Amino acid sequence: MAKILVIDDEAELRELMRLVLTRRGGHQVVLSAGGRDGLKKAFADPPDLAIVDVMMPGMTGYEVCRALRDNPKTASIPIIILTARGQPVDRDAALAAGADEHLVKPVTMAMLMEKVDEMLARRGGGEEVGGTLVMLSLRGGVGVTTLAVNIALLLAQKEAGEVCLADLSPASGHVALYLGLRPEPHWGKLPPDALDPQAIAPYLLRHDSGLWVLAAPYYPLVGRTMEPGTARAVLDALAQRFAALVVDTPSLLDEATMAAVETASDVGLVVTAEPASVQTAIGTLRALKTWDDKLSLILNQVTPGPPPPVSALEKALKRPFAAVVPFDPAQSQAVARRTPLVIGDPDAPLSQALRGLVEGFGG
Ligand SMILES: Nc1ncnc2c1ncn2[C@@H]1O[C@H](COP(=O)(O)OP(=O)(O)O)[C@@H](O)[C@H]1O
Ligand SMILES: [Mg+2]
Question: How far does residue 142's CA lie from ligand 1's centre (Å)?
Answer without folding.
Answer: 6
